[in-house]
Amino acid sequence: MAAWARAVRGLLLDVSGVLYDSGGDGGGVPIAGSAEAVRRIKTSGLKLRFCTNETQTTREKFVKKLRGMGFDISVSEVTAPAPAACRMLKERSLRPHLLVHNDLVPEFAEVDKANPNCVVIGDAAENFTYANLNEAFRVLIGMEKPVLISLGKGRYYKETDGLKLDVGAYMKALEYACDVQAEVVGKPAKTFFESALAEMGVPAQEAIMIGDDIVNDVGGAQRCGMRALQVRTGKYRPCDENHPQVKPDAYVNNLAEAVDVILQQL
Amino acid sequence: MAAWARAVRGLLLDVSGVLYDSGGDGGGVPIAGSAEAVRRIKTSGLKLRFCTNETQTTREKFVKKLRGMGFDISVSEVTAPAPAACRMLKERSLRPHLLVHNDLVPEFAEVDKANPNCVVIGDAAENFTYANLNEAFRVLIGMEKPVLISLGKGRYYKETDGLKLDVGAYMKALEYACDVQAEVVGKPAKTFFESALAEMGVPAQEAIMIGDDIVNDVGGAQRCGMRALQVRTGKYRPCDENHPQVKPDAYVNNLAEAVDVILQQL
Known about the structure:
Two copies of one chain form a homodimer. With about 270 residues, chain A is an alpha/beta fold. Chain A has eight helices and 14 strands.
């Protein structure tokens, strides 16, 4: 019946807006049926990878929070932007000025940050102050060829107390001020999805991405040759269904419904 | 000798970076020779208009500060974005949510701000907090067709304690987050320069704009048919002289030098 659900060996799940709705206080509320859906995926024999642009905390704390909400998840199952950025910084001998959330800083513990020659921007939330933006701007504008690395390019996300601007908006501010194009680590970067697929050992054609972000989850995964579903939870808005560029392989009301359909086809 | 200086009847002067360098505390330091240059223009018989994108204060306070630094300037000689925005808001029955500097708010005293149906963004400086950006974003994203009005689109400006992000950077953040294009009031908008010319009663071909911003002063004025000079003061940077799109009619070291040359041709 559902052609999009056939011949699947692995699932990539976005986390915020799919498993849970995050709260402004760092907490959050699980989305009904999602914890059970994760358990059903794991017992089904499907490969599973959590593919998140979360940059407000270390993977360790993030996983701990999710386990506290009842999710069966471990650090080794999570693909996140900060470790990908650390690999890139080391490969290119870059020393970052960090404009990130305080709780993300430990992910960069091993990275040389003296005398910075690039800026790394994440979802810094309350750290997006006027003073901090100006400081990052001055580091960039002082370089002959500014290097800006962004941990994602999301426009906004939903917390329990409302929509919030995501890192992409602040990335655009710095791009414009410095006349530079950011290098995006995290979704929708192709290399990021490809890492997640490699970590699962599943080719793109046999994987489905499930997310609430029409551009960064759905569009990004489809450009890598995956199928992709948009859930009608999290930051989903009805007008997403008229998006001029991106059309998901299917819409589902939530993760539980997606898993129902996929498991029926196994 | 200087062909660009011939047949001039009026001058438009940018203020910050041409007359003075502004300070983070709302004060500033006059640029050497500029106060004397303004006096010489006024006694020469040339028409004069101050054409500023200043949105951190009312015109009254702005003029008072400049007079305190020794400049011969009055409110009626200043073309600024906030009054232009107020005219636009009234014409279109728009009720703004304001994301502006506290000191600019009195310029909008006569405007109905209840139940907002647009956002007006100015150079809010310390008011560009994470919370205030999110609030403006939510007003916009909640509209069927978001209306964002920006009092300028400058990338950055120079204060005595360093470069600061200008309104344009924050405008870009909201544009990206809401997938909307801002309507710019102030330089480099054509209507803004045209108002200043009309207020002087001088046609574009007989006017010269003098500014430190290669795009918003020089490029904007040239698109209106004016000649335009870039001063090597304020936010001027040597790399401006290799700008891919904009080429001033001449460079001058400062306002005093420009006035020297222009007055020699009268």
